[in-house]
Amino acid sequence: MSRPRFIALLLALATLAVFLPAGRLGFVSFDDNDYVTENPFVKNGLTVTGICWAFTTSHAGNWHPLTWLSHMADCELFQLNPGAHHYDNVLIHAANVVLLFALLLRLTQKPLPAAFIAALFAWHPLHVESVAWVSERKDVLSTFFALLSLLSYIKYVQEKSRRSLWLAFLFFTLGLMAKPMLVTLPFVMLLLDWWPLNRLAGARPSSASGLILEKTPFFALTVISCIVTFIVQKQGEAVISLARVPLLLRLENAPVAAVDYLLKFFWPENLCAFYPMPEKIPALPVLLSVAALLVISAAVWRWRDQKPYLLFGWLWFLGTLVPVIGLLQVGGQAMADRYTYIPSIGFFLALVLLARDLAVWLQMPKIIRCGLMALAAAACILVTEHQLQFWRDGESLFRRVLAVTPTNDVALINLGVALQSQDRFEEALAIYRQAERISSTRYQLHNNIGDILGHMGRHAEALAEYQQAIALRPGNALLHLSAGIELAALDRLAEALSEFSRAEKCDTTLAGPHIEAAKALFKQGRDATGVEEFRAALRLDADNYQTLAVTARYLAASENDATRDGKNALLLALKADELSGHNQPVVFDILGMAFAANGDYTNAAACARNALDLAAAAQLTNTEQIRSRLELYRNNLPWRECFRATNAPAKN
To answer: Nearest to residue 154, comparing CAs of 114, 104, 94?
Structure first.
């Protein structure tokens, strides 16, 4: 085995070892629900419907079909095993380390500096977020294609291979389909033309324009990607308006964030998952940050001929940081560790090559140089191991964020979500109230408080919270749906139906408003109209076992002979059982109702027993009604329900 291949293997194995604890991490209540755990298209694995959705959706405020497909592949292979999803991120990150080493070796022809730069990229704690967060698959995946694109571009330049140029374009396209942050990659190629490829050495202006012209397809794709990204993020309400974060504040934050990144490269202290945008930034930090950036820029420009790698690395860092520096605000954070994943490459390159030249100038013995590199690598690994533990679950993650930024209402909301997912409702409600004292202008906060109050049976209070959320986001279909559910719980059925109608108008693809409208109509005694709403829900969501199951229940168990349809109820319940993996007690219970509606009491009793067994395995205790149904089936009797509210007049 050649020396470079041996180094690449060592880097990959060491990276896998460093991130081995990622296999013990769980999903977190911060985007992982949108990307994986509560996304039906992703959870169903690689299906034709899911693949079509991946290429047409703007879900989560992004168009990145390759990222969706990678998550679907994980669910296809490993279902919702969080360790497997995390290990895939680690494997891609390790591949990126090897590709980066290959790229640097090709550029510098110096194995040791190239290996150390790759090691810093691999093990620096600022990159924990990109690797340990399942939702940041897009970060490691897009970088994988970016590095392949740059390697192909270098091969094109060095070997005059047009095929390699088109491969570079293909990989660039795939990278943008994983994460649009790669839009600055054509500018990196121009930097490579200047150094170390020396394509601009002594070149006439016409030659320089030729280098730009050859990258026209790349720049065209950059423009298209920027337009598409802005549109989908605007649609997904991810773009923060100038009214909420003024342009002046964004301009002030940009240099401060850039300098903070530089400081964290050297001293990665107080890292966390969300750094909130401050309401105001004092003038002194802004002036000092601008001064620091200008001084560094002047210095690297001054040394551009003697040490061109300084200007190259500095421009790589600044240039690739531009899309995420906060001028276009997405998500409301002032900065984010994950944004350094690609920009850090330029910084590490400049730093390591400068340190090498300084060591040579000082005539530093090789053993001391190697010792210092080992010490720096060990320090990175130790802090990375420490940082990994905070990604264990949502509660750990956001308690860490609050330890770093105590008045962070976004962190409090997400901590509340983590506690809520563990059924710790009183604790979650207290956390939400704490967030409300900091800021009451986030609709998600009122939505989450409403969810808890509704669960507690405090329907009037829950309705008030949803109404506050609707005032903040009137076009959000789910808020209207939730408000309608609380109105129905209060038997204000006409108002509930109005909310469900608004929800349908806000999002014509949602089945939920039709399901809840059907229940309300049955409560009013308008069974036939309710059945039509169930059918509308099935047209929208025919592969959702919950939609199938609730429709089957109403068709199988209704006391109204005119709307009861045992045959269709059985077909729907059988499909729901198949889609749910034959392991949901509620589905088996409804399947039993459907069998009984068709006079098959033997299978009905078997389904009821299966439902009881599954409920016992899941430690569910509220099984009295299932036992009552089982007794009926044993006596060859079906289960019948009156879905009509006691005070509702019959309408049809």
So the answer is: 104
C-alpha distances (whole Å) from 344 to each of 264, 318, 388, 409, 454 are 11, 10, 19, 29, 47
Work out whether the CA dihedral 543, 547, 551, 554 comes out positive or negative: positive
| Number of CB atoms found within 10 A of residue 105's CB | 19
pLDDT along the chain (652 residues), means of 10: 92 98 94 94 92 93 95 97 97 98 94 97 98 98 98 94 96 97 96 93 68 95 93 73 84 97 97 95 97 98 96 98 87 92 98 96 94 97 97 97 96 96 96 96 96 97 98 96 97 97 94 97 95 96 93 96 94 95 95 97 96 93 93 96 70 40
Contacts for 443 with CB less than 8 Å, ≥ 6 apart: 468, 469, 470, 472, 473, 476, 479
**Domain boundaries, given as residue ranges, for the chain:** 3-390, 541-652
Q: Quick one: pLDDT at residue 458? A: 97
pLDDT given at position 209: 86
Structure tokens at 310: 């300084």
In terms of DSSP H, where are the helices of 61-136? 65-78, 82-108, 111-123, 128-132
SS3 248: helix
At 232 the pLDDT is 87
Looking at the domain covering 541-652, what would its CATH class be?
mainly alpha
Q: What is the 3-state secondary structure (H, E, C) of 294-330?
A: HHHHHHHHHCCCCCHHHHHHHHHHHHHHHHHCCCCCE
Question: What is the SS3 assignment for 558?
Answer: strand
Dist. CA 35–CA 60, nearest whole Å: 8
**3-class DSSP string for 333-377:** EEECHHHHCCHHHHHHHHHHHHHHHHHHHCCCCHHHHHHHHHHHH
**Whether the Cβ atoms of residue 323 and residue 229 lie closer than 8 Å to each other:** no
Rounded Cα distance between 69 and 41, Å, is 10
